[in-house]
Inverse folding.
């Protein structure tokens, strides 16, 4: 008798590709997908260095000279705005030895490398390299390695891959499927951040998981969710993108929480929309506000999550605004806290040698759609067989 590998364990061991079956026969991903440093390295190479990534709001670099220094999957990057209003993105690695030239966020006329004082313009072009002329070196025309960037609806996207598809191609499915996601007509009300001890994919999945809502969130919005046996009416789009529209009574019926109705919803009495963009964006619209989540892996079991809360200009300064915004943010934080317990436990659970990926519920359709694309992009067949051996 073998207690370590019981019959059920062998029978139900599932390959990575079991997520790609029809949902009635699909299984969740094996634990190593969420715990392995090798997988995390492959994700960096195949996903974060190749996909369009949303890294900031344009309003965060509104004035000429504004900049933000970021680390995206460990890569130091700067996004900035020059006097002509253009947004730039470039690597934050000095052309001399690689020291970061920009730190934090702020407004500047130039970046000065703290090591040997090479200077760069806000557009990343080299301005000065002290004493290099004396050394017979001509550094004219040099610039920090450029990163592709695009702006859309007030967001700044970057892409490290010169060969990646155009941004317009990437964003087209969302533009068509979620015309109500009008973040270009909103600005930041607040930006919340969370550091969670779990893999970034668990948060991406959780934000699309309708199955847990009435359980984990029974004390908040879960009580309004009456989900039956029917399939979720989600639009499943190419590249792992999905969108769903639904009646969000939890936000619409609470007289204390809502700000004024979003102007473009006009006569709608209840409306919510939500969805995901591969790899790490989750977006949401209620009656009165929009939200966007960005999930940044720090290690296989640590994620930095950012939640932007956006409102139309007309909502700012309405009666009791500050108190309502505090209340709203407390609500988002409460919901995130409810999720945190499950997510951090999930991370510990899948690390167990005894974890066997279970079957999906029909309410996990959207997260399955995201993961199907993930498995395709990662080309996991080889990795899966190596780990199964
Ligand atoms: S490393 Fe930047 S000037 Fe030397
Ligand atoms: Fe949740």
């Amino acid at each position: 008798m073998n207690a370590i590998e019981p019959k059920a364990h062998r029978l139900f061991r599932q390959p990575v590709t079991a997520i790609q079956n029809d949902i009635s026969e699909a299984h969740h991903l094996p634990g190593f997908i969420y715990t392995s440093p090798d997988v995390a390295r492959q994700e960096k190479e195949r996903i974060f260095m190749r996909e369009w990534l949303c890294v900031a709001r344009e309003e965060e670099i509104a004035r000429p000279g504004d900049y933000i220094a970021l680390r995206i999957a460990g890569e130091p990057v700067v996004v900035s705005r020059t006097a002509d209003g253009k947004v730039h993105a470039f690597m934050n690695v000095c052309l001399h030895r690689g020291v970061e030239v920009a730190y934090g966020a702020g407004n500047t006329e130039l970046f000065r490398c703290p090591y040997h004082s090479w200077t760069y313009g806000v557009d990343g072009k080299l301005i000065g390299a002290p004493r290099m002329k004396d050394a017979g070196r001509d550094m004219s025309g040099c610039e920090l390695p450029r990163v592709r960037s695009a702006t859309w609806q007030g967001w700044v996207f970057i892409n490290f891959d010169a060969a990646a598809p155009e941004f317009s191609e990437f964003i087209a499915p969302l533009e068509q499927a979620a015309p109500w996601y009008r973040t270009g007509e909103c600005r930041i009300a607040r930006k919340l951040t969370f550091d969670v001890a779990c893999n970034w994919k668990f948060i991406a999945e959780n934000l699309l998981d309708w199955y847990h809502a009435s359980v984990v969130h029974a004390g908040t919005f879960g009580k309004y969710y009456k989900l039956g046996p029917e399939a979720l009416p989600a639009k499943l789009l190419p590249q792992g993108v999905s969108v769903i529209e639904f009646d969000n009574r939890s936000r619409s019926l609470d007289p204390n929480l809502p700000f004024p109705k979003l102007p473009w919803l006009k006569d709608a009495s209840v409306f919510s929309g939500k969805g995901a963009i591969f790899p790490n964006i989750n977006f949401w619209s209620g009656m009165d506000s929009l939200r966007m989540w960005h999930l940044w892996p720090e290690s296989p079991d640590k994620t930095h999550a950012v939640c932007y809360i956006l409102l139309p200009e007309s909502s700012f300064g309405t009666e009791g605004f500050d108190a309502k915004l505090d209340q709203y943010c407390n609500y988002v934080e409460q919901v995130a806290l409810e999720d945190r317990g499950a997510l951090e436990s999930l991370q510990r659970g899948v690390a167990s040698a005894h974890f066997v990926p279970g079957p999906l519920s029909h309410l996990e359709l959207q997260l399955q759609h995201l993961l199907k694309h993930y498995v395709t992009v990662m080309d996991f067949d080889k990795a899966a067989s190596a780990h199964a051996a």
